[in-house]
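Ticket opened by: R.M.
Priority: normal
Category: complex prediction / small molecule

The reporter submitted a protein together with copper (II) ion and asked that the result be attached to this ticket for the collaborator who will pick it up next week. Submitted input follows.
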Amino acid sequence: MRVMAMAGVVLLLGLGACTKADQGAKTGGAAATTAATGTPPVVHFTAADFAFQGPDTIASGMTTLVLHNDGPSLHHLMLVRLDSGKTVEDLKAAFVALKGQDMPPAWAVPSGGVNPPMPGSDARATLMIEPGHYAIVCVVDVPDHVMHVDKGMIKGLTVVPSTTASAPAPKSDMTISMVDFAFKPSGPFTSGHHVIKVVNQGSQPHELVMVQLAPGKTMDDLGKWGQTYQGPMPGTILGGAAPMSPGQVEYVPFDFTAGDYAVLCFVVDPASHMPHLARGMVLTFKIS
Ligand SMILES: [Cu+2]
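Result attached by the on-call engineer:
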């Protein structure tokens, strides 16, 4: 990926079955406003080649976004707040003009979201969403190095003030702080289910892309695949947090099994025009 998001990558795991709360929120905005305390309302979006399906309006507050990838390509859901009266069309034009070589203008505020699940799977992230006008965008550029937003993969989303108190943040058992340019985990990674609190403590937007490398594959293999997108990706993408502004927080669940993992940030550094991972924003770890 280019501008703010990932390089295309891989396979991933589906996260969990639909709960009752999920079912209630499937209709989108109106249902989401009824949740008061307890668990954050769940809002579902589906990505396909090359469009999003989901609500046009949701309520503000702590919200779990679930992205189902109908494929066949990789897709993510990047939430971008549109300030200064700018429109979805303005943002699309800005992305097309940037060609992935720079960050969007200041009126387009990265506001988190869900990084890619593998085709056929879901990924999710929980975050505080403030009222405002947003676009949901996919800037993945697999398989032909053309960003999906250029193919029309952008949709408006209005966030209206909630009529009820926000649900509390989910419980997390680990924190990953993102700085310019590194991921700093609060402790060792272990197998099993975890909810990771992802915090942007940097001065630039950052994202978290979680990849499980295929057995016997290395970061080198992943890098080579990223240049051409030829053949199967040497790993699986497990979702993550889409580009977040400084100070923003997201809660992302992962189920770790034995293997080699990489945590990556593809946001473009405006000074060098290089993705953050090329400036060292890569963390690798092993689960045995
Ligand atoms: Cu970064």
